[in-house]
């Protein structure tokens, strides 16, 4: 069996038994797939019509599919590199492949990106709940009070598990809310079509910022190892099946939302397309409620990587550093309260989506995973390709040699595409956003 097929069948062996739960405590491939799907389909979905207008309809649709494929590859590449390096943590595998520079680059980017994501989720919850209360409640309650109550009473208690496995049931509920939201946008949006211009241009007016939004929408690498560790049977094959199903589902959901919203609202599409609908539409208002529920249940999935990164930097992870859980819990409360406070003050979503996507999501989900795979996940190199050298002198784990096959070469090429795409968005996208802000 070649390494290219063997890596899908063999379990991943990691040198941290404390991080590896007993098989009977793990989750099925289906449940983990729901977790990954829930991690992908987040607040970015409501910004997709806005992104499609800025990218241009045809180019935007094309890039939505391309970015989905590249994102799926990075989910595979990270866990595959974990096989080669004997690690099962995003920061650990980055350090093993790229050294301390890669480790610090990941941590800084992760903190900015995930903190921004949590804040965006909370901003959406505040906006949606405030609009519903203004419409239906007999008394008026401020957005700050509503958001504070939801954050402390509902979300905060979900932030103290050891990993995301126990959140699987919440992820299923969250995902089951999405079909109605998609259908109500698809069915109600045509009623308001014609009020805004819809241009089917190949390229739009702000392509690079739109790519930042799409990169943000497919932010999922932070969920790779936590969800992989939640599998009952931790093989790369099961991980590929779970993550591929999640990516496919996320692409279908994103495409439906993006196209229907764009066809209805075109150039007037807001960063939260649900806000394009009038407050008198009760069908849409129920969709707003379900989306608020989805954001409430998704926020913990975005917060766990923040906590894991901070506790690793501060050396207060109770399992990795044998310290009291009090430090981790205190860190959780302090950081989440800070995120909530920022979300109460800030309300502009469009620029935040673009900037976070271009500046940090591109690094976390494309640049670093691609480099990690190229440096430590594969034996393929330019010199080897030019000389047509076999890889029999470079055995993998277990001492089994591999050859330079078409499949291994294809993965090497895709990895370079991932890296170049990430750099393109990070450098040019960020510059374009800041120059036009």
Describe the overall structure:
With 437 residues, the protein is mostly helical. The protein has a single domain (3-9, 27-388, 398-436), classed as Up-down Bundle (Amino acid/polyamine transporter I), CATH 1.20.1740.10. The chain has helices at residues 3-6, 29-40, 48-55, 57-85, 90-136, 143-155, 168-188, 207-217, 224-228, 236-265, 282-313, 325-345, 350-377, 382-387, 406-436.
What descriptors fit this protein?
AA_transpt_TM, disordered N terminus, mainly alpha, globular, single chain, 437 residues
SSE map:
Layout: H1 3-6, H2 29-40, H3 48-55, H4 57-85, H5 90-136, H6 143-155, H7 168-188, H8 207-217, H9 224-228, H10 236-265, H11 282-313, H12 325-345, H13 350-377, H14 382-387, H15 406-436
Helix pairs in contact: 2-7, 2-10, 3-4, 3-8, 3-10, 4-5, 4-8, 4-10, 4-13, 4-15, 5-6, 5-11, 5-12, 5-13, 6-11, 6-12, 7-10, 7-11, 8-13, 8-15, 11-12, 13-15
Short structural description:
This protein has 437 residues and is an all-alpha fold.
Total number of beta strands: 0
Order of helices and strands: HHHHHHHHHHHHHHH
Specify the CATH class.
Answer: Mainly Alpha
Q: Approximately what portion of the residues adopt beta-strand conformation?
A: under 5%
Membrane topology: Multi-pass membrane protein
Keywords: Amino-acid transport, Membrane, Transmembrane, Transmembrane helix, Transport
Subcellular location: Membrane
Family: Belongs to the amino acid/polyamine transporter 2 family.
């Amino acid at each position: 069996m070649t390494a290219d097929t063997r890596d899908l069948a063999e379990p991943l062996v990691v040198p941290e038994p404390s991080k590896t739960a007993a098989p009977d405590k793990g989750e099925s491939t289906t449940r983990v797939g729901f977790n990954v799907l829930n991690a992908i389909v987040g607040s970015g979905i409501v910004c997709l019509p806005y992104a499609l207008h800025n990218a241009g309809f045809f180019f935007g649709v094309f890039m939505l599919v391309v970015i989905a494929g590249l994102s799926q590859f990075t989910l595979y590449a990270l866990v595959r590199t974990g096989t080669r390096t004997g690690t099962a943590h995003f920061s650990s595998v980055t350090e093993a492949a790229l050294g301390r520079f890669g480790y610090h680059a990941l941590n800084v980017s992760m903190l900015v990106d995930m903190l921004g994501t949590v804040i965006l989720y909370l901003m959406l919850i505040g906006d949606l709940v405030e609009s519903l209360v203004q419409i239906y409640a007999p008394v008026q309650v401020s957005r700050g009070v509503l958001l504070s109550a939801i954050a402390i009473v509902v979300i905060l208690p979900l932030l103290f598990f050891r990993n995301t496995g126990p959140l699987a049931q919440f992820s299923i509920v969250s995902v089951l809310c999405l079909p109605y939201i998609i259908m109500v946008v698809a069915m109600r949006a045509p009623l308001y079509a014609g009020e805004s211009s819809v241009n089917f241009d190949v390229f739009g007016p702000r392509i690079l910022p739109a790519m930042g939004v799409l990169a943000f929408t497919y932010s999922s690498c932070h969920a790779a190892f936590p969800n992989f560790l939640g599998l009952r049977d931790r093989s790369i094959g099961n991980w590929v099946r779970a993550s591929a199903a999640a990516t496919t589902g996320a692409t279908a959901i994103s495409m439906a939302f993006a196209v229907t919203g764009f066809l209805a609202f075109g150039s007037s599409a807001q960063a939260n397309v649900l806000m394009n609908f009038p407050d008198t539409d009760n069908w849409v208002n129920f969709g707003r409620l379900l989306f608020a529920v989805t954001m409430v249940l998704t926020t913990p999935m975005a917060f766990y990587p923040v906590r894991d990164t901070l506790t690793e930097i501060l050396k207060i992870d109770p399992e990795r550093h044998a310290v009291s859980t009090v430090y981790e819990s205190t860190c959780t409360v302090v950081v989440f309260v800070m995120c909530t406070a920022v979300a109460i003050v800030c309300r502009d979503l469009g620029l935040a989506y673009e900037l976070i996507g271009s500046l940090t999501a591109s690094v976390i989900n494309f640049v670093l995973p691609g480099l990690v795979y190229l440096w430590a996940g594969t034996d393929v190199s330019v010199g080897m390709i030019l000389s047509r050298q076999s890889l029999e002198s470079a055995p993998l784990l277990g001492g089994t040699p591999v050859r330079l096959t078409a499949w291994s070469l294809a993965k090497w090429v895709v990895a370079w595409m991932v890296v170049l795409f990430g750099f393109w968005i990070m450098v040019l996208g960020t510059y374009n956003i800041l120059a036009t802000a």
